[in-house]
Design brief:
332 residues, alpha/beta, 2-enoyl-CoA Hydratase, Chain A, domain 1, 10 helices, 14 strands
Length: 332
């Protein structure tokens, strides 16, 4: 997990006081709002000004990070938009590679990122190639469908087309510790999804109808982007939430080719009509030894991060709500 610059104002104030007490100065404005900097990830064989931009879609997809004790790295629409806004201003950017390594995330944030990529393609006309890394599931695959072509790493996991709603229940725990809540509402459904009581059948039916709506949007997107799959009816056997290996996904038409990240980058260069190009990314600080596998566009940490891995409690890794998310063990 990377610390979000909005998540630690108290920490910054404490650091400022410490520096003020000594002889060391610090640029707090740059610390709080680090600029996006161009970083070369792969040098071209010869001299060229043309560039291929690598854009990360990594970690849980959410509207914003959860803060200091977030359970995983996040990809937000804000970060993706910042990268694409800068790329729009650089006419040397001739192609984009989306490097996806994500189990998916919230329905809204996923669709926002997909919308930003489509708007960028429409505004610039540059080709976009998706490269699926270790996992590009559900919302990750949703975003991949915005690309001209989809490459899958030979060891990737992808698919998980579908929607899941997560509503944690804690009424048993609150009863044991004597914690309660008084709810005064204007309508019978006003506290639907409350963790402090069991969900009624009519409430489950209402949520199911919403899930079906989001699911239909997902199916329509895949059908439009992958005409080989045909109609919704033809897609349904592949869209029951199951995941696929790279070779299975390719055989079923979910991806175009199986290969490594460099293969996807070379394909992007060719799609742009170039012989070679400098491969870059935009990042908030980056080591000099950066490669195409280095994380991009991350807020730098100013203190050691805290990682919490809870693989046996999957519901804790996602907020209550609707998700295009591969959540193993999330069902009972």
């Amino acid at each position: 997990m990377m610390l979000c610059r909005r998540a630690f104002p108290g920490l910054v104030v404490a650091l400022a006081l410490l520096f003020a007490a000594g002889c060391v100065s610090v640029d707090l404005q740059r610390l709080l709002n680090p600029p996006l900097e161009e970083v070369t990830l792969r040098e071209p064989a010869g001299l060229t000004r043309q560039r291929v931009l690598l854009v990360d879609i990594n970690g849980l997809i959410a509207a914003s990070p959860d803060g200091l004790f977030s359970l995983a790295d996040h990809c937000t629409p804000d970060t993706v938009r910042a990268v694409l806004d800068r790329a729009r201003k650089d006419r040397r950017i001739r192609a984009v590679v989306l490097r996806l390594d994500t189990p998916g995330g919230t329905v809204a944030a996923t669709d926002m990122i997909a919308h930003e990529i489509e708007a960028f393609r429409k505004a610039t006309g540059v080709p976009v190639i998706a490269a699926l890394m270790s996992a590009a599931c559900s919302g990750g695959y949703y975003i991949a469908t915005t690309a001209d072509r989809i490459w899958a790493h030979p060891a990737t996991i992808t698919g998980s087309i579908g929607v899941i709603a997560v509503f944690p229940q804690v009424q048993g725990l609150t009863g044991k510790i004597g914690l309660g809540q008084v709810v005064i509402k204007t309508g019978d459904m006003k506290d639907i999804g409350s963790p402090l009581r069991e969900m009624r059948p009519e409430e489950q039916a209402l949520f199911q109808a919403m899930l079906d709506d989001y699911y239909g949007q997902f199916l329509d997107r895949v059908c439009a982007a992958r005409p080989r799959l045909g109609s919704r009816e033809a897609l349904l056997p592949l869209a029951d939430g199951r995941v696929f290996t790279a070779s299975q996904a390719c055989a079923n038409g979910l991806v175009d080719r199986v290969g490594h990240l460099d293969d996807a980058i070379d394909d992007a260069i060719q799609a742009a009509g170039l012989r070679d190009a400098r491969v870059i990314t935009y990042a908030y600080g980056h080591p000099e030894t950066a490669t195409v596998y280095s994380p991009a566009a991350r807020i730098p940490e100013i203190m050691p991060s805290i990682r919490v891995n809870l693989p046996d409690v999957p519901a804790l890794s996602a907020k209550a709500g609707f998700h295009y998310l591969w959540l193993p063990g999330g069902s009972q």
